[in-house]
Amino acid sequence: MVTTLEARQERRDTEQAALDSLTTQRKQTIQEARAKQSEAQETDKTIARTTAQLNVLEKLNNAFEGFGAGAKAILQGKLGDQLDPAGIRLLAKNFQVSEENRIPFEALLGTHLDALVFDSQQTLTQVIAKLNEKKLGRATMRAEGIRAIAYNTPSDLPEGVISALEIVDSDVNEHVRAVLGGCYVSHDLERFIAYWEAHPEFRFSKVSTRDGTLLGADGTFQGGRGKGSDASILQRQNEIRTLKESLEGLHQKVAVQRDEAESLQEKVQSIEKEIEEKRALISEVIQEVSTLKAQQRAAIQDQQKNAQARERAERELSDFEEQNQRQRASLENARLELGKGEDDLNNHRESIEAGEKAVVTYREERDARRDRLADLRLQLAEKRQRLESLDKAMAQISQQRDLTESTLRRRGQERDTLIEQGQSLRDEEGNMVARHKQISETLEVTGSELEVQRERFQGLEARVKEAEQLIAEKRRDEREIESHFNKIEVKLVACRSKLGTLSERAQTDYEADLARIDWKWQLWKADEEFEKRVDLDAMEDGDPLDAQPKTERGDPTPADLDAMDATDWTEVGSEVKALKSRIASMGPVNLVAIQEYADLSERYTFLKEQSDDLWNSKNSLVQAIDEINTVSQQLFEDTFEQITKNFKYTYDQLTGGGFADLKLVDEGDVLDSGIEITAKPPGTRLKSLSLLSGGQKTMTAVALLFAIYMVKPSPFCVLDELDAPLDDANIGRFTEMLKSFTRYSQFVIITHNKRTIAASNVVYGVTMPEKGVSKVISMRFNKDVSADDLTPAKAIGEA
Predict the structure, then answer these.
(1) How far are the Cα atoms of 84, 459, 477 from residue 467, in angstroms, in the given order?
(2) Distance (Å, rounded) from C-alpha 165 to C-alpha 159?
(3) In angstroms, what is the C-alpha Rg of the chain?
(4) How many CB atoms lie within 10 A of CB 734?
(5) What is 441-506 written as a DSSP string?
(6) Against a cut of 0.90, is the pTM above it?
(7) 79: part of which helix (H) or strand (E)?
(8) pLDDT for 614-665, tens place per residue?
């Protein structure tokens, strides 16, 4: 058994290790699958973003965004049905260049970016006539068969200069050759100019640098770039091509990711299946190990019990023998000790009497010694207290002595210092007396000179005051003049700066030179009133949006021009500021606003129709609900009234003269109202159903059931032990009423009552003739039945 148990345990450990390995592998695989799913989701999001960008760009392409007014009108079919759109081709679709060469190509193409190609020159002439007639704008066009200037590409071009036809990625047809013939792309414009000057016979049309700087054959340069970076037709085509290629790669990538995720998911399922198999195998092995361990424990416990019983019996036997020997020895010892004990008892009695006398003596001595000890402790405390007082007094005397000695030393030092100071004061007094004499003599000599100098100083001081007053007045006038000049100069600088700023802003924002603007004429035109509202629904794409004045104001008179000199510029500035604020609040110009308005208007009309349909549907539903509620309420009231009448009748029949009634709790809300049941058996004054007995409650329920059956009977009915709480009299009335309903329904009754069984037509039961063996029996009563009772009531009795 032990060998088998160890084998099972080793197998369990092996399978458990395999299970742990599979569990770890499953977690890793699940993490990998989730990572792949996350990558696929991220790729889906990237696809969605790329698709949205592609849709926007294709929508701009389909709306011909960036095309000139004339080209857009032609492509949108505004010239009429005479022009077949299938015969029009866009020249830019023949160009396919890399993003690196896009900017120089845009500069070289110029107006040819939205150029159109027609099948014949006659069609081109008709289109131009239509554009002029309808004033739809200008367009750049070419026709088949029209010759263009042929340019030869030199073989000795300098390094960095490439013909534009050599870097076109698409096929070069005659129109591409005609437009790009003689066009070059140069990395260094100065090197190209040097080559041109060195070869006067060299002929070219245009040359562009990588940044879009353009040089024409006539020596005209075009360069510079604005702040904005509106997408051109070529850039949009490159972006669309790039996005489509990116979408293809993303779709392939997401397909690979999904395949990997599905394979990982399948791997997870297979691992889970193996895990379940391992778990089932481990559970079986564990059960076997548990069974073997239980058997082993049971065998060990049996062995231990047997060994313990044998040891217990041997111990009890040895204990009995030892106890017998000890009792015999103790009996002999007890007999010997009994004699000794009697002798010792007499001796102890004598020693006890002597000890008691000694104890009395010791107690008296102890009390005397205690009193003496208390006196000695008291004397010791008094001596200690006196000693502490003496120590304190000695300490105070020592402190006073030290203080007196220090005071004596300080007084001696002060005395020596005072003696030295007195000697120095006496010496200083002699010196001061001699110096006083000298100063007195000098003072007498200089007193007369001081009077003379004082008179001269007073005269000079008066002249200085007069000069200072004159200088102060001159300086005050000079400061006023300088202050006024500085104010004028600051105002002039501010005006010049403001004028420069305004000129720069006017040139930048409006491309207008303030020096050439007649402000009075502009102010006169600014007061014109224009039509403010534009009917966008009546407009078509490409229609002009020029503001139309309400009335022509005409030219100003000289009196009007003179009156403009008194213009309140503060009010004009406030108006300009308010208009700028309104323009700024409008945000950037939306070039497709009219198209967006048309789309939104169409969507609004569609949603309005849907909303109206929903409201009409809602009103119809509300009306239908009201009709249903009305009909339901009427049907409920009629049915409730009939059930109430039936309930009164059935309760009276079942109870032999009782009263019952049904009432609505809330008659205002019939469909949601509760129902109050009143039942009064004969001879009682009960007011609540909870006070009825079990049989009375059963009769009430049966009466209500039959009252409902009288309104709408059911094909069959099952009653389970309904007659259990009824007595014989009530069972008789119950069975009589039950028989009256058998013509409408079949009744299956589960009962133990003999009278109910006797009233039935067929009895089915279960008996057990032998222990553990059940048998179904049936019995049909031979009764005279009328033609109305052909459908018998059935009762099931339990045996």
Answers:
(1) 103, 13, 16
(2) 17
(3) 64
(4) 24
(5) HHHHHHHHHHHHHHHHHHHHHHHHHHHHHHHHHHHHHHHHHHHHHHHHHHHHHHHHHHHHHHHHHI
(6) no
(7) none
(8) 999 988 998 998 888 888 888 888 898 899 998 888 888 888 888 888 888 8
Distances (CA, A) of 607 to 537, 592, 598, 620: 17, 22, 14, 19
Q: CA–CA separation, 499 vs 519, rounded Å?
A: 14
Residue 87 in tokens: 């015969």
User: Which tokens belong to 357?
Assistant: 């006398």
CB 260 within 8 A of CB 7: no
CA distance linking residue 464 with residue 455, whole number of Å: 15
Name all contacts of 218-227 with Cβ < 8 Å and 24+ positions apart.
222/107
Contact 184, 214 (CB under 8 A): no
pLDDT in tens, 544-591: 555 566 566 677 788 877 777 777 878 888 888 888 888 777 777 776
The helix (H) or strand (E) run that includes residue 438 is: helix 233-505
Instruction: Give the integer Cα–Cα distance in Å for 346 and 130.
Output: 164
For residue 760, what are its two tokens? 């039935």
Angle at 122 between CA 120 and CA 127, to 5 degrees: 100
The residue assigned the tokens 């000794």 is: 340
CB 160 within 8 A of CB 188: yes
Ordered strands of the 762-770 beta sheet: 716-720, 746-751, 794-797, 762-770, 773-780
3-state secondary structure of 35: helix
Residue 748, token pair as written in the block: 């299956």
What size, in residues, is the chain? 799
What are 369's two structure tokens?
A: 């010694």
Specify the pairing of strand 183-186 against strand 659-664: unpaired
Q: What distance in Å separates the CA atoms of residue 748 and residue 762, rounded to the nearest whole number? A: 10
Q: What type of residue sits at position 335?
A: R
